[in-house]
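Researcher: Sequence of Lipocalin-like domain-containing protein follows. Predict its structure.
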Amino acid sequence: MDEQDLVGVWHLVGSAHINVDLDLPDDDDDDSAVVDWLYGHSPELLAQLEATGGLTLQVQADGSFRQTCSGEPAVEWFGANGVLEEKVVPFDGMVNSEGGEHFLLVPDLDWGAPEGEHEQATLRYDDGDTMICDRVALQGAQLIRTVSVVTDEAYGDRVVMAFRRATN
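Model: Prediction complete. Tokens:
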């Protein structure tokens, strides 16, 4: 899938959420459980999607994206600042393609911009306590957005959102 395949206006049609305790190895230097969660998939969540709407994701040809909200979409929402919000708080950013996958990033963060091992290539947020990977992919006619969060290197949240392309 090419980044240009994402260009267009997408409307939220469903979302699902899980949270887990990460199974961490005894070796403090082994962060494989964290990495596996951040870049993992939860295909079973697609079967658990609950219908919702009110969020629009618009991807531009230059790779920028903009989100707008109408009403109160039923979505667990981790904002641009890494906080689990009480409601959807849209933010804008850039789509970055890395290794054939596409990630939503917020490049203008004053703090929480990823550094080091993960850098800004694939993580949307990393303040040392909270890391967020926000990935989008086409699956059939839907755009699937997977937001994977690790808190304190021990707790994982994953939000899956399904979008349908707007028709003119």
